[in-house]
Amino acid sequence: MSVIVKSATGEIYLFCKGADSSIFPRVIEGKVDQIRSRVERNAVEGLRTLCVAYKRLTQEEYGGVCQLLQAAKVALQDREKKLAEAYEQIEKDLILLGATAVEDRLQEKAADTIEALQKAGVKVWVLTGDKMETAAATCYACRLFRRDTQLLELTTKKIEEQTLHDVLLELSKTVLHYSGSLTRDNLSGLSTDMQDYGLIIDGAALSLIMKPREDGSSSNYRELFLDICRSCSAVLCCRMAPLQKAQIVKLIKFSKEHPITLAIGDGANDVSMILEAHVGIGVIGKEGRQAARNSDYAVPKFKHLKKMLLVHGHFYYVRISELVQYFFYKNVCFIFPQFLYQFFCGFSQQTLYDTAYLTLYNISFTSLPILLYSLMEQHVSIDVLKRDPSLYRDIAKNALLRWRVFIYWTFLGVFDALVFFFGAYFVFENTTVTSNGQIFGNWTFGTLVFTVMVFTVTLKLALDTRYWTWINHFVIWGSLLFYVVFSLLWGGIIWPFLNYQRMYYVFIQMLSSGPAWLAIVLLVTVSLLPDVLKKVLCRQLRPTAAERAQTETQCLSVEQPTVFMLSQTSSSLSF
C-alpha cells in the first residue's frame, strides 16, 4: 500500500508499507540485511511485522505518475491488469526506512474455542496475511498446531528448490502413506493412530496451484492440493491477499464433498472471504466494522463462536430437521386416507373430512406444537453441549436430513394413515354401534379417522420432545383440547349463518358410542407403537452420543443426593 504526500517545503514523497517479501525486492538503498534479520527475529517471537520504504519524486516524475495512473483508470479493457502494471512501475527503486513489529494478542479463550471446534469435527483453516513465522507461532499459541504436529511446507522457497509438481507429489506420499491401512476423519483431521500433519502454504505457492497448466488441459494441481489438505489436521495459509482468501474458500466450497463453509474475520481484508463462504461471521473489534457489516452474523468476541456453533447451531439444526420432516409426516397422514377413500366412494371426489377440518388441520389443530418445538426444543442441555463438543458430530454431514431418515418418516406417515383408515373401516363394517340401532355414516367415519389422526400426530411430537416446560404442556394438550371443544361446538350448535350443517350432532353421536372410544384408543396406540419400538431399540442397541449424554444426565439427576446443612449460629435450614 502506497501513498504520495507533499511536504510544507514542496517536496513530494512516496511512502510504501507492506510485507517484507513485497518491500525488499523493491528496495535499492537502506540497511536491508540488518532490518531483515530483525524482522525475522520478531516474526519468530509472534509479532506482526511490516516494512516501510519511501522515495522522493520530482515534479516531472509526479506528473508522469499521475498520467500513468489516469490512463490505467480510464482503460476500457484489462483495467485491473493495467493498474497492477502501473503500480509495479511506480513502487520501485525505494529506500528502506525501517520496520514495525506489534504484538497481536489472542483474544480470551480463543485457543479453547479452536480446540473445541476440532473436537466437534470442524476442519479449521487459518487464512492470514502475516509472515509465515508469525502465523506459525500464532497457530501454536491457539492450539491449532500441537507440539507433535509434523509441519509440511508448500512455500515459494521450497518450490524454488524443486518444481511444484515434485513438491506436491512428495507431500502427497508423506501424508497418504498410511491411507491404505488407517483412516482419518475427513472433517476434523484428528486421529490417535496416525501422525498428525499440519500444512503451511503461502500466497505465491497458492497462485501457482490455482493457475491452470500450460498445456491448457482442464486438470490441474487443485485436486492434489485438496487431497493433501484433507489428510492434515489443520492448514495455515500465510501471506494471503484478500482475493486469495476468497479463492481458498471457493475452492473448498466446490470440492467433491461440497462441505458447508464458514468464514470469520474482523477486518476489511476479510470481507471477500466472508462473502464467499456459505456463512459469514464478523468480529466487531478494533479493526472497524466492515467485516461485521458484510457478514451474516456479528459477534463481539471470537470465543462466542463456540456457543454459536456447538450449542445454538446444534439446537437449530435439530429443530429445523424435525420441523421439515414432521410437516411432511403429518400431511402424509392427512392426505393418504383421503386418497384411500376414493377407492370406496367410486372416485366421486367426495371428501373424507368436513371442510372445517380440512381448513383448520394445518392452521389450528397441529401448528402450534411443532412451532413451539422448533423454537424451544433442547434435546441435550446447554452445559452438556458446551462440555462435550464431540456431540456435534451426531449432526455432521446433514445426518438428520438424509434420504434414510426421510424415508423413515415417509414410511411412518403411510403406516399411520393405513392404520387410521382401515382400522376405522373394520370397526364400522356391518356394525350397529349406537344404542338405537343406527349405523354410523360417512361423516362419522371421517370424523373418527380425523380424531385418531390429530391425537396421533400430536402425541408423536410429544414423544419426540425432550425439553418440557409449562408452555409445551399448554400448547400440546391445549391443541388436543381445542380440537375436542371446537368439534363439540361445531356439531352441537345450529349456527344461523350456515345454510346447512352436515356435521350437526356427528361428533357427539360418535363419542356416545363405546366402540368408537375403543377404536380411538387402540388405533392411536397401534399408530405410535412402531415409533416407540424404534426409539427403544435404537437407544438400547445403537445409541447416539446425544442419547448417551441424555442417559448419563438422567442418571446423575437421579443419583445426586440432597444435602442439608444446618447452621450452628442460627436456626435457618439452607439447601
UniProtKB/TrEMBL annotation:
It is a multi-pass membrane protein. It is found in: Membrane. The chain crosses the membrane at residues 406-428, 440-462, 474-498, 504-529. Its EC number is 7.6.2.1. The keyword Cell membrane does not apply. Its cofactor is Mg(2+). It catalyses: ATP + H2O + phospholipidSide 1 = ADP + phosphate + phospholipidSide 2. Residues 292-544 form the P-type ATPase C-terminal domain. Belongs to the cation transport ATPase (P-type) (TC 3.A.3) family. Type IV subfamily. This is Phospholipid-transporting ATPase. It comes from Galeopterus variegatus. The gene is LOC103610764.
